[in-house]
Amino acid sequence: MNAQEGQRVSKVQFLATIEQHALAVANAGLEQT
């Protein structure tokens, strides 16, 4: 695997982590109201 592929994979993982965090925050907000 070359460096460019590694960067792309880590970016995808980073975005997926942010998306999961955003969903968790949204779910918590829905539960509070």
Write the layout of secondary structure elements.
Blueprint: H1 3-32
The description of the largest β-sheet is: none
Q: Count the helices. How many?
A: 1
Q: How many β-strand runs?
A: 0
Low-confidence stretches: none
What's the helix-strand series?
Answer: H
Can you walk me through this structure?
By secondary structure, the chain is mostly helical. The protein is built from one helix and no strands. It has one helix at residues 3-32. The longest helix is centred in the middle third of the chain and has 30 residues, at 3-32. The mean pLDDT is 93.
What descriptors fit this protein?
33 residues, 1 helix, rod-shaped
What is the structure about, briefly put?
The protein is mainly alpha-helical.
